[in-house]
Design brief:
Structural class: mainly alpha
Number of strands: 0
Shape: flat
Helix content: 55-70%
Strand content: under 5%
Distance between the termini: 48 Å
Largest sheet: none
Low-confidence stretches: none
Order of helices and strands: HHH
Mean pLDDT: 81
């Protein structure tokens, strides 16, 4: 039963993360959805599975997501 609940939890978080990634890439939306909420959701999922505070290092992904492609944008 515990394995089923973990699978459901991972599926829900995965779906939320994929929608946040797609929505942040849409025109007229803030990229902060991708930069901060995706690493936060992944860190929460990893903490629930591993019970270790080392998973908070996943939040450093937000730095990578903030770098961009290196090309100037119109924003």
């Amino acid at each position: 039963m515990n394995q089923i609940l973990n699978s459901i939890k991972c599926s829900i978080i995965g779906t939320i993360v994929s929608f946040l990634g797609a929505w942040a890439g849409a025109e007229g939306t803030s990229k902060n959805w991708r930069r901060f909420l995706i690493p936060f959701a992944l860190a929460g999922l990893a903490y629930s599975q591993l019970q270790s505070f080392w998973v908070l290092t996943i939040m450093f992904i937000s730095v990578v997501f903030s770098i961009g492609y290196g090309t100037p944008s119109e924003e």
